[in-house]
Structure formats: structure tokens, C-alpha cells
Design goal:
Blueprint (H helix, E strand, L loop, with lengths): L19 E2 L11 H12 L10 H11 L6 E4 L2 H12 L3 E6 L4 H8 L3 E6 L12 H4 L6 E5 L11 H14 L2 E5 L24 E6 H4 L8 E4 L3 H8 L9 H11 L2 H26 L2 E2 L6 E5 L4 H7 L2 E2 L1 E2 L10 E5 L3 H14 L1
Amino acid sequence: MQEKEKYLHGGDVYHNSVALDFSVNSNPLGMPRRSIGEAVRGIKLSGQYPDYRGEKLCSEIALWENVHPENVLLGNGSAELIFALCFAVKPKKCLTLAPTFQEYARAVQAVGGQTEFVNLTERDCFRTPDSILAAIEEDTDIVFICNPNNPTGQMTEQSLLFRIAAKCEATGTWLCVDECFLPFLPDEKDYSMKRMMGRFSRLIVLRAFTKLFGMPGLRLGYMLSSNSTILSAVRGCVQPWNTSLPAQLAGVAALQDKEFLEKTRLLIARERTYLCDALRDGLADKVYPTYANYILFQAQPDLAARLLEKGIMIRSCANFRNLSNRYFRIAVRTRKDNRRLVETWQSLS
């Protein structure tokens, strides 16, 4: 019998009895109400094909991101775009951080390439070191930077990102900055690399509706770049009609709901403080600083299993490079959910 592929991510509610899922980093508010309505309308209209380029949604994204519509490419989640990018570039040598999102290395492996890692250290709270610059060489085909990084929640400093982008320009290396979690920050425009696309022709920015707008089941992401050649190449590597009609309509509605974003940012800022304080107050062995809507911490290795017995799922980080079974990640959720996690955790001791 063929062995089942091991699932690498959070959110496996289909094989576990879960009342509260802290293992995925989606918006605790869920999908915007209008997006739900538009997704339902999309289902009713699904007797027809979706717009194969999603031009209406691309126009809304362009307004949202302050870029030109031709700089936008839709994907079936950002994961599809990561793989399509690698199939387009066919990198023999990739550079990324460790720990970070595993799909970068998996996508590179899928096209026969090798990934080298810049090791982040617990001693330095997993910050991206300046030594990454020396690791970008003439034969480095692509660099992936997750900012804020998953699962650490740390930001790569803007000045360092600029230097990384400049080094990639000099070496002819593609730089893909994954900003899927960046919009949770109130001052995200000060950190985003999208404003540098005109300056750096090898720069690619990834974003998604998955986390910010709480729609992982609809699978919707997008790529931004001023480089028409790479966008065309990636477009040639995705399947036709890769974003569904319900997803496209839900995405348009989400971007038109400005109040939802502000409400989300206020909730995340408040509840992240609440959870970090609770974890530091005797629950976790160590809590790491975070800019994201999730928190990395150390605790006893059996914590995830014990919480799951109570119906609460958290993310073990044991399968991340450079982390062990003592590392865990939890999402920031609503006060009601966060309090239940804290109280349940307290009851285990």
C-alpha cells in the first residue's frame, strides 16, 4: 500500500476533532460579509467559466495596491504562484531562510533545483542576518524572503531588503518577497517592497486573500511585478481558469470593504498583546517577539497533543528546519477564543 504523504501545515481539521483551530493564521473575523454573499452568487453563476484573467479583480487589486493592472497576476492561492514561478524560472540554486515557509524549497525541488539556507538563530530571535548578502552569488537563481517570516513573526529590516534587492539586480537573481501576512500591520505600506518594483526589475511580491480576508478555502492569491517578462512566463505555467468565479467575486467584494481591514488590524494588535502577556505569565517557556498575527514560542513537547485532547489545535513547528518539537505557533484569534485557549492550557498543569 502506498504511504500517505505527510501533511506539512496547520489546519488539518479533517482528520482531528477540533473545536478551536489556532494552527492556521487566517483572519479570526472570517470572510467579510459581502464576500460571502458574492461567493454564493458566484456559485449560482458557475454554469459559466470565470474570466480567465480575472480582469475586474486585477483592476481592484491594482487600486488597492496602487500599482498598474498589468503588474498583477492572479493565482489559486499564493502557493500555486510559488510553484508556477519555479516552473517558469527553473532555478538550479535557490536561497531562502531557515526556518521559513516550506513550500519555497518544495517548489524548487519539484523542478530539480537545490535550496541553500541562511540559518536564523534562536539567540538572535530569528532575525534575518546581514550575512544573507554574501550568500547571494552569481549562480543564485532565486531568493525567497517571507516578510513577516512564517513561523517566526520576525520582519526583515527594510534597509536590508533594499540591499538584498540591489544584490539580486547585480547578480541577475530573482527576488520573491512573500508579503501574505504584511497587511495585518497598520503601517504595512512602510514595509512593503511593492513600491520598489519600478526600481528593481528582478523583484516579485506575493500576496493573498487567504490570511487577511479569511478565505483559505477559496484559494486566491496574486503576484505583483513590474517585469512583464516574468509575469508572462509565470502565466504560462498556471492552468487555464486557475481562479474560480466565486473566488474572483469574493475577492472584489473584500477589497471594497475598507472598514474590515481597520477592524482586523485593531483586533490583531490588541489580542496579540493579550496572548503574548498570557504566554509570558507562566504558560510558555519562552515567547519570541512578533510583528505578525501569530506567535512563536517554546513549551513542553507534548503540549499540542494535550491541547488537542481538549479540542484545541495549535501548530507544532517540529517539521520546520532549525526548530524542534519544543517550538509551537499559535494564531491570534478573538478574545473569547484566546481566553479559552489560555484557560484550557492553564488547566493542563
